Amino acid sequence: MSAPDFAGLAAIAPARLEYWLRDRYFDARTDISSSGVENYTLGDLRELAGVDLADLAALPFRDSPSTGAAPLREAIARHIGVPDPERVAVGHGSSESMFLALSALIRPGDEVVTVRPAYQSLWSIAEALGARLVEWPLDGDADFAPDLDRLAGLLTERTRAVVVNFPHNPTGVTLDETGFRRLLDLVDRHGCHLFWDGASTMLTYEAPPLPDPTTLIERCVSFGTLSKAYGLPGLRLGWTVAPPALIDDMVRLRDYLTLSTSPLSEAIATAVLENADAVLAPQLRRARLGRGVLAAWLADNADLFACALPAGGVVALPRVRGVADVEPHCEALLAEHGVLVVPGSCFDHPDRMRIGFGCDTAVLERGLGVLAHTFRDVVTGSGAHPERGTS
Q: How far is the C-alpha of 269 from the C-alpha of 19, rounded, in Å?
């Protein structure tokens, strides 16, 4: 495989979500914006995963192997059910892994089908690499339910890859087993690649997590991370599962970037994944509680917000009735009340906002209370600012 053309990467589109959160994230007093769960401390991991501080103290800070230390790759493979750890490569979160994999595979002129709305990396990287993007839109009027018939109509002989994330960020929808199998069959029959962002795989409520699709079809690349369900975004630890040849090409690119991940992060991550059930259990309980709080809030404020209850992940994307653009009101929420949410303009749905419900329930209840009070004033007119986007 020849080296990718990086000429377009300098003009990559600004990451709207990251721009929104970059400074606001640190200013918020009540953060209900996150797509992850409550953050663990090192002390929590000592208790839940048996992380031994004496072992960490003796750890030499030498470079790790380019694809990650063998014990970590083996732990990842066992945890997600991949039989061959040689198909696993460790990265700085799933973001680096996704960047490397797309850069290694996509060429100018390739046709890439991307789910929309979506976390921006799923489409901006391919676009900057010169791909022709074909959107697979999830219809907000149908509660963003994935329409596999619509996807089938988008695939052609020119399709190089299909890029998706389920459970879906920012809406919380996911595929049932039938839809999942049909997606894999569509991609497999067309001979294109599936890029599967499984960041929230373990966060499901009404059905068990979907299996890693790399175990079911050959032309598939999947991504995972400890940032979302595990509450460890600061570890910056994720992974790719891919054919070995693609991993080789990713390593060749990585030699010019980060070279490897930290042995300290890898040691902690290995302990976490070897004790994954114990680490995940409190987070799943918290997520279920948060989902219940969100459900009650949506029911109590159905005249203000329209949203289906998420089937996976810890985010929802409710529409604010009668408000065309919520962004100015999101700015006011932070400035006046210290409450942080993400305006839907970050996902091309300006009449919506992303709410995260994986945080502490007291924080969630406080933030949702402010949202309801603020938008009730806006929608009923007492706090409306037509020039700011109310309609």
A: 28
Which residues are 340's β-sheet partners?
Answer: 31
Contacting residues for 188 by C-beta, under 8 A, at least 6 apart: 217, 218, 219
Cα–Cα dist 174/96, whole Å = 24
Q: CA 164, 168, 173: angle at the middle one, nearest 5?
A: 120
Rg of the chain, C-alpha, whole Å: 21
The answer to whether residues 198 and 313 touch, using CB atoms and an 8 Å cutoff, is: no
- Closest by alpha carbon to 66, among 235, 261, 264? 261
Task: Summarize pLDDT for 224-280 with one digit per residue, the tens.
Answer: 999 999 999 999 999 999 999 999 999 999 999 999 999 999 999 999 999 999 999
Peptide bond into 167 cis (omega under 30): yes
pLDDT of 176? 97
Measured CA to CA, the distance from residue 224 to residue 81 in angstroms comes to 13
Residue 3's pLDDT band, with cuts at 50, 70 and 90, is: very low
Q: Distance (Å, rounded) from C-alpha 30 to C-alpha 355?
A: 12
Supply 104's token pair: 């290694």
State how far the Cα of 1 lies from the Cα of 4, in Å rounded to an integer.
9
Q: Which residues contact 196 (CB under 8 A, 6 or more apart)?
A: 164, 165, 166, 212, 213, 214, 220, 221, 222, 223
DSSP secondary structure string for all residues of 200-211: TTT-BSSSPPPP
- Reading the block at residue 26, the tokens are 């640190």
How many other C-beta atoms are found inside a 10 Å radius of the C-beta of residue 93? Answer: 21
Q: Which amino acid is at 271?
A: A
